[in-house]
């Protein structure tokens, strides 16, 4: 698989994250799976005219490539001109390059939530950059390429959403495409590969015991569950962040802060402060996916009444003050 | 005279275009264009103040933690709180991890591949350098990526993940480190030190940190196996110790309580006076007015402005263009090697790279002592209330130089948010006095155009530009 990679209205963080791929060197991992970068803005040696020649040859069909990976939102402004990003050296809007190249690609991958759904500008009143995703404008199908776009493999844009993407999401999706192919059944309704979006962030959360007992954190750095007060959306966000660790052994929850649902379209403007849970009559508005509200309220009341002192006390401090009791042999009676 | 446009100028973070006016194969004047606009200062207005902590890291995927740290410092200033001791140590560790990882990424992935170019075939060092540093396929990439990923495991403990963490709070960190995890952090630092000493330096960190002059440096590199010595040999052969000088005016906000804040020009250091900072938009696609201090700054798009050529503003200190980055930090801090390089030949491609390597040698041992100073059980985060009306300033050092956030809060919402990023300083356009930015100045007189060596490539990348920050 030859991969052509372009960046636009984003931070480059998905590439920086990708370079953290472990345990092998990213380049070795991909090479042995038959995947190579035809050109990547952060990694390839070709610069200036040499780089433009590669892109022009690809766009004109003179140079074959398989996968088009785009990183960053599509900036259509000001006033539809695309001048918020004219690709350096070419004088042409990056959106135009993407439209031309997408017609030649077997697969088109939107790497990161900006590319998939439009990013921060698209979620700011008035959308000052006229930003959108490749095939979505937030939750609405469309975007730069249009709702009906299909690459030559017969697939819509594959949205490897996340801000940033986990290196494993990108590597596994590219390798799946190369080794087994991809079909629409491999994607969810927002075009995300199910290999990571078929889970919730909640799955495998290290704070699960606090969640079970609704032993909630009250302030930043507390050990308790972050859902009730501090804005955590792990029970609603689609991703396997707590099953597939970040940077060795991390995740947002393990880092002590809320999941802000960065794999979901529109996460950039949740309608409330990121680190606060909006509530109605004391009950969080955003309840776990698939769970009826009455059940949640009943279970929460029950579990709160049954919370062990250890869990209750540890939930509101930044290090455990009570450790699990040690039962000694024969000491039970 | 002919004009050439060089772009996309890759292996920088983000998109970059450089226009060069040539006279007989030499650059007579340069214009640096940051062709992408991001608009984050508009995105922040009207938000709840603490939302900045979720938004600003997403300005940049390579200086994400620096952006978070600047916002947290500005918010702490507005709230009138200071981080706990552990919280401050944890923040320094996160910032240092990112900065050193960036130095490594820059050297191996962005900067060195240019020395593998066919244009240098025949130089005595070329064959070995090409084998080691050719982009993607060189032998160094296979070693440096696991070393980098292993080092960034520090962030798995300290920040949950990298990039884009919410662990950095005005009062410290959301993530308390346990006694057991402290042992892991020390092990990760040891592992990274092993890579740096064995592969990058071919010597102990302490030996590199003690080099005090250019002569000592070149004598140290002579005959030594290691990637940094390999660079020094190539750079000396190509005369890169005398190429790339801008104004030799330097500025640093100070880092980790290890390197002090200050300015340096005409051979003299001085205290930093943040009030002397102003941003000019004369040649930017932004509405023009008087140059403004960032507390009064504005970012209003004017895409059809005649004579404008970039989305980057022109920050000036006391009206003058200043260079920021590792070299600026080390000159302001008075490191003898950095001072000797600048005093002898002025800032150069070599001096900028040497300063980054020096920081790897100086900061890694400091990080080990910081980890040992963490007190598990003591608080990692202080708490306070957000006022409805306040202003705050956060000044930090990212890998590539001085990063400042200035915010004001009115009626509980962000009313103004202005950011000056490192590359905004270094790659700024001309101002109302037609004073070129530091890179524009550094390119004057260099060979360029058909048949020229890749000197321009080295000079541009010697600043380690981050364009996505530049055009936040």
Can you walk me through this structure?
- The complex is a heterodimer of chains A (about 325) and B (about 475).
- Chain A is about 25% helix and about 10% strand.
- Chain A has about 325 residues and is of the alpha/beta class.
- A 5-stranded parallel sheet of chain A has the order 2-1-3-5-9, with helices on both faces.
- The longest helix of chain A is centred in the middle third of the chain and has 13 residues.
- The radius of gyration of chain A is 23 Å and the shape is elongated.
- Chain B has about 475 residues and is an alpha+beta fold.
- Chain B has a single domain, classed as Cytochrome-c3 Hydrogenase, chain B (Orthogonal Bundle), CATH 1.10.645.
- Chain B has a 3-stranded antiparallel sheet. In chain B, strands 6-7-8 form a 3-stranded antiparallel sheet, with helices on one face. A 3-stranded antiparallel sheet of chain B has the order 11-12-13.
- The longest helix of chain B is centred in the N-terminal third of the chain and has 27 residues.
- The model of chain B has no long low-confidence stretch (mean pLDDT about 95).
Question: How would the blueprint of this fold be written?
Answer:
The complex is a heterodimer of chains A (333) and B (472).
Chain A: E1 2-7, H1 13-18, H2 26-32, E2 36-39, H3 48-59, E3 67-71, E4 74-75, H4 94-102, E5 107-111, H5 113-117, H6 119-122, E6 131-132, E7 136-137, E8 140-141, E9 158-160, H7 167-179, H8 194-197, H9 208-212, E10 279-280, E11 283-284, H10 293-305, H11 309-314
Parallel strand pairs in A: 1-2, 1-3, 3-5, 5-9
Antiparallel strand pairs in A: 4-6, 7-8, 10-11
Chain B: E1 2-6, E2 17-23, E3 26-33, H1 40-44, H2 52-55, H3 64-79, H4 85-111, H5 126-133, H6 139-151, H7 153-158, E4 168-169, E5 172-173, H8 179-201, H9 205-209, H10 214-221, H11 227-238, E6 249-252, E7 262-265, E8 268-270, E9 277-280, E10 314-317, H12 326-332, H13 336-345, H14 349-373, E11 390-398, E12 401-410, E13 413-420, H15 422-426, H16 438-442, H17 455-462, H18 467-470
Antiparallel strand pairs in B: 1-2, 2-3, 4-5, 6-7, 7-8, 9-10, 11-12, 12-13
């Amino acid at each position: 698989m030859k991969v052509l990679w372009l960046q636009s209205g984003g931070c480059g963080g998905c590439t920086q994250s990708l370079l953290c791929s472990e345990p092998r060197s990213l380049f070795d991992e991909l090479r042995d799976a038959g995947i190579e970068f035809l050109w990547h803005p952060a990694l390839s040696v070709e610069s200036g005219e040499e780089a433009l020649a590669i892109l022009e040859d690809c766009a004109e069909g003179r140079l074959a490539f398989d996968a088009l990976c785009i990183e960053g939102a599509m900036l259509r402004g000001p006033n539809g001109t695309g001048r918020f990003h004219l690709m350096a050296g070419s004088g042409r809007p990056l959106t135009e390059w993407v439209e031309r190249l997408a017609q030649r690609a077997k697969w088109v991958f939107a790497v990161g939530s900006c590319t998939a759904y439009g990013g921060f500008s698209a979620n700011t009143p008035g959308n000052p950059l006229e930003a959108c995703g490749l095939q979505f404008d937030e939750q609405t199908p469309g975007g730069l390429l249009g709702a009906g776009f299909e690459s030559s493999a017969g697939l819509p844009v594959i949205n490897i959403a996340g801000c940033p993407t986990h290196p494993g999401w990108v590597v596994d999706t590219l390798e799946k495409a190369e080794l087994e192919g991809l079909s629409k059944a491999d994607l969810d309704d927002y075009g995300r590969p199910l290999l990571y979006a078929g889970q919730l962030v909640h799955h495998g959360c290290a704070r699960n015991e606090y969640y079970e007992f609704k032993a909630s954190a009250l302030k930043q750095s507390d050990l308790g569950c972050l859902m009730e007060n501090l804005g955590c959306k792990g029970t609603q966000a689609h991703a396997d962040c707590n099953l597939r660790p970040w940077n060795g052994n991390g995740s947002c929850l393990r880092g002590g802060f809320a999941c802000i649902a960065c794999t979901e379209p529109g996460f950039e403007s949740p309608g409330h402060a990121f680190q606060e849970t909006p509530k109605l009559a004391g009950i969080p508005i955003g309840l776990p996916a698939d769970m009826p509200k009455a059940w949640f309220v009943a279970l929460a009341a029950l579990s709160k009444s049954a919370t062990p002192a250890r869990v209750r006390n540890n939930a509101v401090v930044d290090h455990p003050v009570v450790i699990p009791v040690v039962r000694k042999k024969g000491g039970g009676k | 005279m002919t004009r050439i446009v060089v772009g996309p100028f890759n292996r920088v973070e983000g998109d970059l275009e450089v226009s060069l006016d040539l006279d007989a194969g030499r650059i007579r004047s340069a214009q640096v264009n940051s062709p992408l606009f991001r608009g984050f200062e508009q995105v922040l207005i009207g938000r709840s103040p603490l939302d900045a902590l979720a938004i600003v890291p997403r300005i940049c995927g390579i200086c994400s933690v620096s952006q978070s740290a600047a916002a947290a410092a500005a918010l702490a200033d507005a709230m009138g709180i200071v981080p706990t001791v552990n919280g401050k140590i944890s923040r320094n560790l996160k910032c240092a991890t990112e900065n050193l990882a960036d130095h490594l990424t820059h050297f191996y992935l962005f900067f060195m591949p240019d020395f593998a170019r066919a244009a240098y075939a025949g130089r005595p060092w070329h064959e070995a350098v090409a084998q080691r540093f050719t982009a993607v396929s060189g032998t160094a990439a296979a070693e440096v990526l696991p070393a980098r990923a292993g080092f960034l495991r520090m962030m798995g403990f300290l920040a949950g993940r990298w990039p884009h963490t919410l662990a950095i709070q005005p009062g410290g960190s959301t993530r308390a480190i346990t006694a057991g995890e402290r042992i892991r952090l020390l092990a990760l630092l040891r592992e990274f030190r092993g890579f740096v000493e064995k592969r990058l330096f071919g010597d102990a960190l302490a030996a590199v940190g003690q080099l005090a002059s250019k002569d000592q440096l070149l004598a140290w590199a002579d005959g030594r196996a290691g990637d940094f010595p390999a660079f020094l040999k190539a750079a000396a052969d190509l005369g890169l110790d005398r190429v790339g000088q801008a104004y030799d005016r330097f500025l640093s906000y100070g880092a980790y309580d290890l390197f002090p804040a200050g300015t340096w020009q005409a051979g003299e250091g001085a205290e930093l006076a943040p009030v002397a900072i102003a941003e000019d938009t004369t040649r930017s696609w932004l509405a023009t007015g008087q140059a403004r201090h960032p507390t009064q700054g504005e970012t209003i798009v004017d895409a059809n402005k005649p004579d404008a050529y970039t989305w980057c503003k022109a920050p000036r200190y006391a009206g003058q263009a200043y260079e920021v980055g590792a070299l600026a930090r080390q000159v302001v801090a008075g490191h003898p090697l950095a001072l000797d390089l600048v005093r002898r030949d002025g800032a150069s491609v070599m001096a900028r790279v040497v300063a980054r390597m020096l920081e790897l040698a100086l900061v890694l041992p400091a990080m080990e002592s910081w980890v040992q100073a963490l007190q598990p059980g003591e608080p990692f985060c202080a708490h306070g209330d957000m006022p409805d009306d306040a202003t705050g300033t956060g000044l930090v050092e990212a890998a590539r130089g001085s990063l400042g956030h200035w915010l004001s809060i009115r009626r509980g919402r962000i009313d103004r948010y202005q950011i000056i990023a490192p590359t905004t300083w270094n790659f700024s356009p001309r101002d109302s006095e037609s004073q070129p930015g530091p890179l524009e100045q550094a390119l004057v007189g260099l060979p360029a155009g058909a048949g020229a060596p890749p000197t321009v490539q080295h000079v541009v990348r010697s600043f380690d530009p981050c364009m996505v920050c530049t055009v936040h």
